[in-house]
Amino acid sequence: MTKRLFITLFTVCMVAISALADGKLAEATFATKTHDFGTIKEANGPVTCTFEFTNTGDKPLLIIDATASCGCTRPEYPSKPIKPGKKGTIKVTYSPIGRPGAFKKTVKVKTNGAERTTTLRIEGTVIPKK
What we know:
With 130 residues, the protein is α+β, with helices and mostly antiparallel strands. The protein contains one helix and eight strands; from the N terminus they run αββββββββ.
């Protein structure tokens, strides 16, 4: 874990230094920043959606972190830099167990891009177990 953290921090620093040197940046452009699950059944368990993005900048894009607004939501993101023009995804899983009713959750995505933080949103309504 320590080695991975070091490599990630080193990569972030190198990409940041490179961007500052020539004024060019990476940029994550998301196809959509919201997802509505509609009505889901608590009994069916976790649901997942995927947010696709493209690096529309001139430098490699690094997803530094993705943090959910609560423990019921779990984001997964690429650990390797996304080259300019290439696509990547953020996978978000929501667990409806014990959470009947409407929900609105967010995932904050931190990058080395022009827009340092992007907020993704999921929502829906959970039908309780009977």
